[in-house]
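Schema walk-through. Below, the input block comes first and the output block second. Nothing else is stored per chain. Lengths vary across the set, and this one has 381 residues.
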Amino acid sequence: ARTLHGPTWMVKAQIHAGGRGPAGGVQAVHTPEDARTVAEHMLGSQLATSQTRPQGQIVHKVYIEQGCEIVRAFYVALLLDSQDETLTFLASPERGGDSIEEVALRHPERVLKLKLPLDEEPSADKIGELIQQIGLSGEHGRKVVAYLQTMYRVFLELDATLIEISPLAVVDNGDVLALDVKMSFDDNALYRHADLLALRDEANREPSEAEAARHGINYVRLQGDIGTLVSGAGLALATLDAIVERGGQPANFMDLPPVSRQAQVAAAFRLLLEDSNIKAILVNVFGGGIMRCDVIADGLIVALREAGSNKPKIPLIVRLDGTNAELGQQRLQEAGLGAVLVTDLAEAANQVVVAAQLPSRQRSSSTLLGSMKKLFTKEGN
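--- output ---
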């Protein structure tokens, strides 16, 4: 802090989550001594925000920067919109930061969008129209337009999927500064960016996500209690939607690679079995091309055998369809896993949500089949 000019310094906890400000992870101080005190308090602490699990994340690093006098502050982002396969600029006259999600929910008209053509760089005039809508013009407006044009080029050069500046500020000397930036990159393109890979900080990564990455599995830990193991990103998202529609809360997003080996499936299943927050698991796999359902079944069986068990301690709902589906179902039945085998996604989602809500004594796989049969017989009557 002593190498930076005062009179204000910002001390920021470095974790992989937003919402740090209200949780005490971003603090303004007015002396180098206070900066030291706050940093020492942050380091090693568990910082829980609206975007972390309840226990939070350990703060291994802090970042100290010079404070500034903000004249105008707002939110801008450039992201890959997978829904309509376009690049999209987002801008809001709000300060951004931790409130932008609430702004999008309560006042969606205050979050402006600019869809970009994929075959040409957006012109200064086009970006200028967006900037004018958030109340910037003149010299400040021109500086922000230039900033966003650079942001677009960086996005493409680094194979990014998101660049979020929250907030982008005009300060008292007329400069435009990015006061906080979040960037996400396409994992499938990281082989082209050794410099980015070198920056990866595994200490601030969820251990389960790091373990999944080691096995080539796309996995994101969520805050629910229903584990999912799914083949394909599209089917994985549809599975999460089906669970939420029925009142359940997914514990994770998981997308097995199309060429999944038995060891990969076993590693993926172990991640779910070892998560004490998970109350039920849904396996939803469509075998097609090189994805085979019997390999999925063998991986589930291997994971349980390696754990020294014949049956999972929590309900297991399995939907296998496509290549070798019948063979996979047969192997699961012969292994005696106690899995509930279903034929369609709606039924699978319904059963796993019900299973997760059962009293703990009824959630073991040995009693689940009977409990589910009684429950659905009652519903049918």
